[in-house]
Specification:
The structure holds 2 protein chains of 2 kinds. Chain A is of the alpha/beta class. Chain A contains 6 helices and 6 strands; from the N terminus they run βαβββαββαααα. Classes of the chains: A alpha/beta, B alpha/beta.
């Protein structure tokens, strides 16, 4: 990975996407030893509103920390998908939630229309691990990070007592794409 | 640099840097996008024998760090624009009483409450001129998470050695941005403490400058007595309005900065052969400028770059050198034109100066700057 690779996680405030971005960036920067920078943008409200978290991955030093031509976009709401898919580059990857995103953007993208929220709710047992299910899917599609290192980063960040739930959520997300 | 590698947010790196520098008191009032500095220190300070207080507002928070510093503790507060406006009066008090302290302003957008979660760089002139009266102004503007750590340490060092408040200016982007940094081992970075008196308590004069322009400072509670007032004062610390004392004292406060530029000034100056365009950028906009400079070079346009790390006092000399070489200097900043005035002031017409300005809550992109470079090249 010599070149800059841009990931944007988008949805609504409260879905844990900022944390998702932090975990992904930690897995890359601390455990893969590749440069990563994570930034976020959100509104003043604690819940709702469009929220995004971005991770730039590169072998070289990263100056501009924000995404401009996105390689991989995750959207967990229709609003976020409409708003943020315009920056997705041609041939880029779009992971959209099957229940929340019903209208997919037109364009030349590799689309993974996945039941992320349903998997979190029904298979993992808690809707709030949707961000970790999504991370599992992202880890399955990214070359720059292994699922083992993402798991390590997840376990470092989640509250004590939720390790098994999160480990399971991550594995379920990974299975959605592999 | 050896040490522990962590993946930190800018605000966390600032708090960690403060601890490294020996900060043992934080008084603050939470405000986005600075709150993580307070959160981090509320957890860590009690474990190192320090104290954390959430005060009733920013005015009290600023007063609390002055009080803590007077008893000998290195002290910090962190805020953003609206809170900074409230702290200004007491910052002036710290300037004239010569109480070391560090104030972090994680800049957000707009006047008043503006854009709470959006980035801005519109408090850079406030950092110099905010509090009333002539006063020494020192402000540092790091551009990465590692640099936030290092510059926080330096802010404490300068503040202690010169006995004056130092402002650390970051913004929402680098305050919230996460990068891998190395926390240096203890002893790897130099730590400076304020000068303390070596005379017996009964002979102590708090503003005795017979041995130099930075008078030794006694900790309250250590047996030394002194009077602390915001009024102009004489060597004993008691008020005076005697012209022959007031004028030299005010001049001395300013001289603490002008005579110590060697420890205060810090900047990056990158030059390229044949450059006819230069950029002056600081903080997160400097990262965009770096990217734009790279893109411009790919198009065959060499661009020189000055990145002030110490924003106040402004690095005039390299800017004059740049202005003598290039035709145009571009100043991108997330405000409607502030440091551009300082650039113009110091180059005295040697080059044309143009701004790239954005205050819509989005960062200045490399493309925004590149467009301007193409236009003027």
């Amino acid at each position: 990975m010599a070149q800059r690779y841009e990931v944007r996680l988008s949805g609504s405030g409260g879905q844990g996407l900022v944390l998702g971005g932090v975990i992904l960036a930690e897995a890359v920067a601390l455990f893969e030893g590749i440069n990563a920078v994570q930034t976020q943008s959100y509104g003043p409200e604690a819940r709702g509103g469009a929220s995004k978290s971005e991770v730039i991955i590169s072998d070289e030093s990263i100056d501009y920390p924000k995404a401009t031509k996105i390689d991989l976009l995750l959207s967990l709401t229709q609003e976020a998908c409409d708003k943020y898919s315009v920056d997705l580059k041609e041939g880029g990857i779009l992971i959209a939630d099957k229940r929340m995103v019903t209208k997919l953007p037109e364009g030349n993208y590799k689309v993974y229309h996945l039941p992320i929220i349903d998997t979190a709710k029904e298979k993992a047992g808690k809707v709030f691990v949707a961000n970790i299910v999504a991370l599992g899917a992202i880890a399955g599609l990214l070359d720059s990070v292994s699922i083992e290192n993402v798991e390590k980063a997840v376990l470092q960040r989640v509250p004590k007592g939720t390790e098994n739930l999160n480990r399971r959520a991550l594995a379920l997300g990974y299975e959605l794409v592999t | 640099m050896s040490g522990k590698e962590v993946f930190y947010q800018g605000n966390e790196a600032c708090a960690e840097g403060a601890l490294y520098a020996g900060c043992r008191f934080f008084g603050g009032y939470p405000i986005t996008p600075s709150t993580e500095v307070a959160e981090f220190l509320s957890r860590r300070l009690p474990r190192v024998g320090g104290a954390f207080i959430q005060m009733e507002d920013e005015i009290a928070a600023m007063a609390s760090i002055i009080g803590a510093s007077l008893v000998g503790k290195k002290s910090l507060t962190a805020t953003s624009g609206p809170g900074m406006s409230l702290k200004l009066e007491n910052i002036g008090f710290a300037c004239i009483t010569e109480v070391p302290c560090v104030i972090v302003n994680v800049m957000r957008g707009g006047p008043s409450t503006g854009l709470p979660t959006g980035p801005g760089q519109s408090d850079v002139m406030q950092a110099k001129w905010g509090t009333h009266g002539d006063h020494p102004a020192i402000a540092l503007a790091p551009a990465s998470v590692q640099e936030i750590f290092n510059e926080t340490v330096r802010a404490f060092n300068i503040s202690e050695r010169l006995r004056t408040p130092v402002i650390l200016l970051t913004d929402e982007i680098i305050g919230h941005m996460r990068e891998k940094i190395t926390i240096p081992e203890k002893g790897e970075l130099e730590i400076w403490d304020r000068p303390r008196p070596d005379c017996p308590p009964e002979e102590y004069l708090p503003y005795d400058t017979s041995k130099g322009i930075i008078p030794p400072m006694a900790d309250f509670g250590s047996g030394y007595r002194w009077h602390v007032t915001g009024l102009n004062h004489d060597a004993s610390g008691f008020p005076t309005n005697k012209p022959s004392l007031v004028q030299p004292e005010e001049e001395r406060l300013m001289a603490k900065v002008t005579e110590n530029l060697d420890i205060i000034e810090k900047y990056e100056h990158l030059t390229k052969d044949g450059a006819k365009v230069g950029i002056v950028a600081y903080g997160s906009s400097a990262r965009s400028a770096n990217a734009a400079i790279r893109l411009a070079l790919e198009e065959g346009i060499p661009v020189d770059f000055i990145r002030p790390i110490t924003l106040w006092p402004y690095p005039s000399q390299p800017t004059i050198e740049m202005a003598e070489k290039v035709d145009t200097i571009v100043v991108p900043e997330m405000n409607l034109g502030q440091m551009i005035d300082e650039v113009q002031r110091c180059i005295e017409g040697r080059a044309k100066v143009v701004g790239v300005n954005r205050v819509d809550g989005d960062p200045i992109t490399p493309e925004n700057i590149l467009e301007k470079i193409r236009e003027v090249a």
